[in-house]
């Protein structure tokens, strides 16, 4: 479908009203019609050299005042509106009279519909989904919980729980668009499809369910895997994409706007299927791993491998390993070079601005912002804000990262030192209670507070749910938290991941991460007995380099090759890996 046609269809959805709310047609002889026609004719008369103030009452009220209207309005010497209310149409005025009628119909829309249409055009179209088909994910169309629905795909399967299976066509187009920007994953699918390296692998996943992750899931399926999937974030699911996956026969349990109870219910439905023993876990945040470990210990012991993408999830795995409770090998994808340097840095450098703009329309020039944490995510956020003219402060616990921040031109501070003056607070540490109630109490009026780390524990949102504070939802994913003295802060996505909750992320960067995840699954599933023990491993350097090489053709990039003599001099294999594991890029 072309962009123009898709936009047209979106416009149809945005302005559609129910029969009960349809504005009544305006007859040419009603007072309102006369009023609008009079306004248009008066403007035309003014343009033709007439007196625009010839009417004693330019916006007349109904009935009695009609007699007070001027006898005629002139247009090229012709009388168009008579005293008795009849209208003599002038061909030259037809298009303008028609426009006035259309304007009248728009203005007569019920307030609720008008507000909904306006809010969608401003913000919801960007937060309900991360795509041009955003209007198809509007949760306001149907408030029924997906858990209470009985849905089937075209093949009669009902092993899924999503918002609306009828959105499948829009979701399929989203996935097709994403495929164009994910060259490495598509190349991997093409190269390995015949070999089926994941044949027989039962993969259970918990990630963001977007068009990009859908390409990953379908790639795993093409490589032979059987997949069941849930969402790792209650706000990031694209409903139409979930519908497209369900239509293809994939067991998906996710929808945008889940409650906490829904979140865990979906994970349990994903795992708890009689006779289905997962062999591999693909996790983003560690919630799925934690659920299986706690609720289904016997199932957990039979897992062959875990692939974890986030800082939070990796931290949980290392805790299990240190306690001697990790009974399966796990692959730390988060600390792979391709994830750290591309997804964390370049992705966040672009998506932080997108998320803030869509939700708040803030202008960055001259604003003061504090970025908590100067890892790869913090580096990306800080660089983006600085480039837009913001004054950026950084907080950091690690002296090495702190020195990097100083050398990059940022002032290193403690949060308490600047909390009263900053306009924007961004957390990206992967820690908990980075911004606590004491900090929130001291913030200035209108301060924007958001999180770019995976976990929703960085901002102490729970401390704001007290009787003396008022919560006011002003947009999708945007809350004003109001103090008794009238001060308010702007809290985005309730402290959850900003970019995937409120905006989009660059598809090309996600191709890098998704390809890394796929290769990690293939490696763990096909590894001979004994290669990986019950511990947490980094992705082999050779795989990192392979993922990078798959993306170079997109830029028409050409690698220089080592000669045999050069390779021998450096002590390398001419085909790589080119750096030792301890090398820091």
UniProtKB/TrEMBL annotation:
GO terms for biological process: one-carbon metabolic process; S-adenosylmethionine cycle. Coiled coil: none annotated. Residues 119-138 have a biased composition (Low complexity). It comes from the Eukaryota. GO terms for cellular component: cytosol. Keywords: NAD, One-carbon metabolism. SUPFAM superfamilies: Formate/glycerate dehydrogenase catalytic domain-like (SSF52283), NAD(P)-binding Rossmann-fold domains (SSF51735). Residues 1-158 are annotated as: Disordered. Residues 344-505 form the S-adenosyl-L-homocysteine hydrolase NAD binding domain. Gene3D superfamilies: Adenosylhomocysteinase-like, NAD(P)-binding Rossmann-like Domain. Its cofactor is NAD(+). Residues 109-118 have a biased composition (Basic residues). Belongs to the adenosylhomocysteinase family. NCBIfam families: ahcY, PRK05476.2-3. This is Adenosylhomocysteinase like 2. The lineage of its organism: Eukaryota, Metazoa, Chordata, Craniata, Vertebrata. The gene is AHCYL2.
């Amino acid at each position: 479908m072309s962009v123009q046609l898709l936009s047209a269809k979106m416009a149809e959805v945005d302005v559609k009203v129910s029969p009960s709310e349809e504005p009544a047609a305006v007859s040419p002889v009603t007072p309102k019609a006369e009023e609008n026609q009079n306004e248009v004719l008066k403007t035309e008369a003014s343009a033709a050299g007439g007196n625009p103030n010839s009417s004693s009452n330019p916006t007349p009220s109904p009935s009695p005042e009609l007699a007070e209207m001027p006898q005629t309005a002139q247009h090229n010497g012709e009388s168009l509106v008579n005293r008795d209310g009849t209208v003599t149409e002038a061909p030259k005025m037809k298009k303008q009279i028609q426009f006035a009628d259309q304007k009248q119909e728009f203005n007569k829309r019920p307030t609720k519909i008008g507000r909904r249409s306006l809010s969608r055009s401003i913000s919801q179209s960007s937060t309900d989904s991360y795509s041009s088909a955003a209007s198809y994910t509007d949760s306001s169309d149907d408030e029924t919980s997906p858990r209470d629905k009985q849905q089937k795909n075209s093949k009669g399967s009902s092993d899924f729980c999503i918002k609306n299976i009828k959105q499948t066509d829009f979701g399929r187009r989203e996935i097709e668009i994403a495929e164009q920007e994910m060259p490495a994953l598509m190349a991997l699918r093409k190269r390995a499809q015949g070999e089926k390296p994941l044949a027989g692998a039962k993969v259970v996943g918990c990630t963001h369910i977007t068009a990009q992750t859908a390409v990953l899931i379908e790639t795993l399926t093409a490589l032979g895997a059987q997949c069941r999937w849930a969402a790792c974030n209650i706000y990031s699911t694209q409903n139409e994409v979930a519908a497209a996956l369900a239509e293809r026969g994939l067991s998906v349990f996710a929808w945008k706007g889940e409650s906490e109870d829904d979140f865990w219910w979906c994970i349990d439905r994903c795992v708890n299927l009689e006779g289905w023993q997962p062999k591999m876990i693909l996790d983003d945040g560690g919630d799925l791993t934690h659920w299986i470990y706690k609720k289904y210990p016997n199932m957990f012991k039979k897992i062959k491998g875990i692939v974890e993408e986030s800082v939070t999830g990796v931290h949980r795995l290392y805790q299990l390993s240190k306690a001697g409770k990790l009974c399966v090998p796990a692959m730390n994808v988060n600390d792979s070079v391709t994830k750290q340097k591309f997804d964390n840095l370049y992705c966040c450098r672009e998506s932080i601005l997108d998320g803030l703009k869509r939700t708040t329309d803030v202008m960055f020039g001259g604003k003061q912002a504090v970025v908590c944490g100067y890892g790869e995510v913090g580096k990306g956020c800080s660089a983006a804000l600085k480039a837009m003219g913001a004054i950026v402060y950084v907080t950091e616990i690690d002296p090495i990262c702190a020195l990097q921040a100083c050398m990059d031109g940022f002032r290193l501070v403690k949060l308490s030192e600047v909390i009263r003056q900053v306009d924007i607070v961004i957390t990206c540490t992967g820690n908990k209670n980075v911004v606590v109630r004491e900090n929130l109490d001291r913030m200035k009026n209108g301060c924007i507070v958001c999180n770019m780390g995976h976990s929703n524990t960085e901002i102490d949102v729970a401390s704001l749910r007290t009787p003396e504070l008022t919560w006011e939802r002003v947009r999708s994913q945007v809350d004003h938290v109001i103090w008794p003295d009238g001060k308010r802060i702007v809290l985005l996505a309730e402290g959850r991941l900003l970019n995937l909750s409120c905006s989009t992320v660059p598809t090309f960067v996600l191709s890098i991460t998704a390809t890394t995840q796929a290769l990690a699954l293939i490696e763990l599933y096909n590894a001979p007995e004994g290669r990986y023990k019950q511990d947490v491993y980094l992705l082999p350097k050779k795989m990192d380099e392979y993922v990078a090489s798959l993306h170079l053709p997109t830029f028409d990039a050409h690698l220089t090759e080592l000669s045999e003599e050069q390779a021998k001099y450096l002590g390398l294999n001419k085909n790589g890996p080119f750096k030792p594991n301890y090398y820091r890029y």
